[in-house]
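Q: How would the structure tokens look for this protein?
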Amino acid sequence: MNPLWRERSWLAILAVGIVALSALPFVANDYLVGTGLSLLMWLALTQSWCVLSKMTGYVSLGHVVFYGLGAYLVVVTWQQVPLWLAIPAAGLLAAAFATLVGLPVLRVRGPYFVILTFGLAELVKFSIMAIESAGGTASRILFGAPDLVVIYFAMFALALLATGLLVWVSRSRFGHGLRSLRENEEAAETLGVSVVRFKLIAFVLSAAIPGMVGAVMALRSTYFVVGGVFDPMISITVIAMAILGGGDSAKGPVLGVVFLFFIQELLWANAPLLYMIILGAILITFVLLLPNGLVGLPDAWARRRGAASDGGRP
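A: Here is the predicted structure in token form.
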């Protein structure tokens, strides 16, 4: 397929998806709206994760820490700070935390960075649990949360914001600089790329969105438990969706999120005990047979057709 035609087809499908999701609350019941809300949440989280990890190759297992901090801020300021201020403040808190820890954390890379980000998330989780325990609070309930439709459109806006952010980063000079870090950090620095500054900016940008996502999802659950919002499975699921999608553009997360989200829904409904086994098998299959994810599937098909055509010639 012609690359220009493929790009136009992708944009048309994306436009249809945006229209369908924007109309969902007006034509569907609460269950379907809640399902759409979850889909948008994973989309926003995965797009924001890709701003750092897909662009630079620094695979973070600590994305959930920003989500949890945003949720915690909204909970502790509930009915004291207006939501129109609390949700952006959650994003600013997450970005400020990323700025604070970014320089020491981004000094390491490879498996050390993965382990460090996981440890950082666990450190923050247990620190907040200790603070809550010292205050005699095991959980919190939010009374008077906004209507589901309001929460849905807030998440819809965050998903669009995260997608737009990744589109801008992937096509900008800044994004090309991040890719150069992924390929060879030392060579990029030699060519004049400000390695420390680029990594820190990407880290901060990737943190702000999940902070606001956590804030919105706290309004959805209305029952706050520290272990729930700092669950490592949130980070793991985001990484799985990004791997399945492939690429470092906004297209990959969209494909990966939609694919894995509906696989999850299908497995939870029909094979809940085999869920993790089947999910692991799917990930292994993609890593071995489709290393470029769903984004690379058309090119893989084209290469196979070309090879078959060449093999059939005398």
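Strands lie at 140-141, 223-224.

The chain is about 80% helix and 0% strand.

Upvote if useful.
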